[in-house]
């Protein structure tokens, strides 16, 4: 295995050098130019059709352009700096994006989706500006946060790591784990780190961190390249019914589209990594574009220099292809992958903290990837979306007492596992007679295989230590269906949204019963005054137990956790939102979450929701679905969107 790994690494070094050469070439060519520009597309937010004739204005520069018949625009000869870009079209809300960076020789690719202006009675009322601080929607009016790529880059201590910036948001907690604060476990409103789902341009990406904890999801550093991201939307309640498996949050990452006019790139050197990004057109028409990046860490060198015992080493790769064959259709291909190796090395000064870390942290080898395709087609009063994807996590963990491999009895655990999901989702989104509604179906084929040698410590009741020795695989289907509808009432003072989702699986004992994951939800939003809103929601949500739980076997090879299926919780949330100006937002929300059917370990009596904030694997043991729990609290949130080079979150 080591020989194979070294062979892989040599290949990747060569690949990286070759991949960075064209990026450096583009950088040198760009440096010879004194101005930059912007280009992009303007779409109808509800139908995804291009908005021909929309006006795009670079405010401070006094430059503007009209979108062509494909919704495309381009403005050149802008001096380097930060600008506000205003987009307007007749019958649509005006939208403003602040602090758009312009650099010499590069062209910033932007996309805008304008909401139709609303009607009050029979009169069309035009809103003067879309409040950029407002993050909620008709479907999800509560506890939504939205960050742009510039806000992520400007976050103090974020180090361009999207996962770490998310951890700094109000209401989002982390965990210390084995290595202090060097982890990106996302714990929201008292939930566990494995209760969140992540979507990249509508395609689920289960692993967004390097050295991920299998069965949970956290890790010490993020995989996503911030140069790809346009914005991030976080929902912590009132989830859109199209998303399954969410108990605490849904993250929606919107990626940029490659530039359709020119080839360009950037190289970023941070305190932990070297990253190169390249984008541009792939044909003369400009309707086929690409965006690609490669990133290499040098943390192992840094940690050795500052005398830390850990030796993390990773690569990651990301690309996006966008093809627009006509005005109504968009076909997107994307992929993200990571190669991780995590070990430890000698230290010069043996402190208590360093010795503890050496004694606890396992060696890790991981390979993860997600690739998929998404087809969007404008239809009458809406759009159709079809997504097809495949994701895999290959995880090898090993730990010996005192890191001494000479005695087999020193082995604490060795896990070699692979989990793969193949997913298809179809959804239709339309607006008719004042109603906004969507419905769809999803199907998955899941595979999980594992080989384990785990020394289980003595139980609380005094049972002796023993070893769990098993290998095996499982595979099964998962199906889901959802529908939701919403509209405004009483001259648009009240917004109401109703949603329903259910899921089944062919593995667990009662998995084909749609009532187990039956998930109704309702949300209300009332306009108290011009800039004040009262929001409330109640919903029931479900998440399938981790594959590590479902695939666990005893020493006879028998699957022992098949009575575990869907973990469930109910959210009750209410709050007030105040937007004093276009870029400022204040919210106060109270929440109550009630859990049931949470897997609890037989050996220790610990809920798996309380595990996962460490470097190991969660769920490789016998559990019973008997856990219950509650979480409640009050949150205050204040946000100043990035405007005039200032932003803040409290």
Shape: globular
> What is the helical fraction, as a range of percent?
under 10%
Determine the CATH topology of the largest domain.
Maltoporin, Chain A
Major β-sheet annotation: 17 strands, antiparallel
By CATH, the architecture of the largest domain is named Beta Barrel
Superfamily (CATH H level) name of the largest domain: TonB-dependent receptor, beta-barrel domain
Q: What is the CATH class of the largest domain?
A: Mainly Beta
- Cα radius of gyration in angstroms: 25 Å
State the low-pLDDT regions, or none. Answer: 1-18, 27-32, 119-131, 176-180
The count of helical stretches stands at 6
The class by helix and strand makeup works out as mainly beta
What is the number of domains? 2
Strand proportion, as a percent range, falls in over 45%
- How many distinct beta strands? 35
The N- to C-terminal Cα distance equals: 48 Å
